[in-house]
Amino acid sequence: MTARMDKPDYYEVLGVSRDADERALKKAYRALAMQYHPDRNPGDTEAEDKFKMASEAYEVLRDPEKRRLYDTYGHAGVNNTGFSGFSGVDDIFSQFGDIFGDLFGFGGRGRGGAQRGSDLRYDMELTFAEAAQGLKRTIQVPRSVRCDTCDGSGAEAGSKPETCSMCRGRGQVHHQQGFFTLATTCPRCRGRGTTIAKPCKTCDGQGQKRVEREVSVRIPPGVDTGMKLRLRGEGDLGPGGHPGDLYVFLVVKEHPEFQRDGQDLHILREVDFARAALGGQVTIPTLEDDTTVNIPPGTQPGDRITLRGKGMPNPNHAESRGDIIVHVKVTIPKRLSQEQREALERYAEVTAAS
Ligand SMILES: [Zn+2]
Ligand SMILES: [Zn+2]
Question: I need a surface site. Which of 106, 199, 223, 264 has the fewest CB within 10 A?
Fold first, then answer.
């Protein structure tokens, strides 16, 4: 955790002001996530670092409680692992170090101590339509599993792990330093307490091997950027055989016309002032097909027309959907043709006379 002292400011990371609202945060995060996504920058560790830092900043600032802590105490308020007494800590937060420690958490520390495997993080990009409909996608997930050749012992067939002679199986050795006795991890067995005279050739004595597994992920309809799915037990297998979890972090691309606000979708339509006065129709996209919306006579600038239940589904209750809200922008022509001018002058005369 010492490296955290030099961490950049989360607001600077996202390039937003300190009073940025949720929408501004999400917009900034989405742009950075798209730019630095590891899939788009294979082998580029600098991009990966930027990606991770942006994700971390967003995770904190999107959560009002964590943001308040960050604003008050800085990084110490949200990254100190000992700082866990406040309410509203969600599951992911206790995993902060692991999740962001490494994209796939290799070698990470399990939540339940040494027995549990690391959690893995997978970042998934979705189009707006995919987010609206939900989908099932198969992803390749690297995972440590027990080596079958040695059955996880790390020793070659016919040999057995032996109690470490240096620490006598305790996994720790003690050093005298002045008045203090320091216990450190045994350098010979690296804390395992056992050594292997003949390491298993398949796994090089690790007792584990890495495999790529296919994991099927079902994304419910209505998800949004910043949401994550937790797949229990799909993470790394720990030394004790207990797997960690797999977290799928979602980034949803923006729709060219809709502005999303929770489950509601806002869209702007320009209507000529005469059409606004007389009434008419505009065409808008929906999550299903394009549809025609009636503009009632006498529509005013800024009026909204709401299409109930046409917005995004709620990922937790697919049958409950938000609305589509059409914002009417009434336009006034900057130039008039001769014919238009004559018609409008006639309109002005009638209006003045009445
Ligand atoms: Zn092996
Ligand atoms: Zn030892």
Answer: 106
Check the CA dihedral 181-186-191-195 and report its sign.
Answer: negative
Give CA torsion, residues 21, 23, 29, 32, to 10 deg: -110
Which ligand approaches the C-alpha of residue 157 most closely?
1
CA of 161 to the centre of ligand 2 (A): 12
Distance 235 CA to ligand 1 centre (A): 20
Residues 100, 83: Cα–Cα separation, whole Å: 17
CA of 159 to the centre of ligand 1 (A): 12
Task: Map out the domains of the chain with their CATH numbers.
Answer: 259-353 (2.60.260.20)
Confidence bin at 16 (pLDDT 50/70/90): very high
Tell me, in angstroms, the distance from the centre of ligand 1 to residue 167's CA: 24
What's the 247 CA to ligand 1 centre distance in angstroms?
Answer: 28
CA angle 19, 21, 25 (to 5 degrees): 105
Among left, alpha and beta (phi > 0; psi -120 to 50; other), residue 249 is beta
Instruction: Note the pLDDT tens digit of each residue in 137-186.
Output: 999 887 777 888 888 888 888 888 888 888 888 888 887 777 777 788 88
**Within 10 Å of residue 103's Cβ, how many Cβ atoms?**
16
- Residue 192 CA to ligand 2 center (angstroms) comes to 7
Nearest listed ligand to the Cα of residue 184? 2
pLDDT at 178 (0 to 100): 73
Distance CA 122, CA 42 (A): 15
Residue 316: φ, ψ to 5°: -90, -20
Integer CA distances (angstroms), 261 to 70, 311, 325, 328, in order = 25, 10, 11, 18
pTM attached to this predicted model: 0.59
Residue 203 to residue 155: CA distance in whole angstroms: 9
Report which DSSP code applies to 237.
Answer: B
194 C-alpha to center of ligand 2: Å? Answer: 6
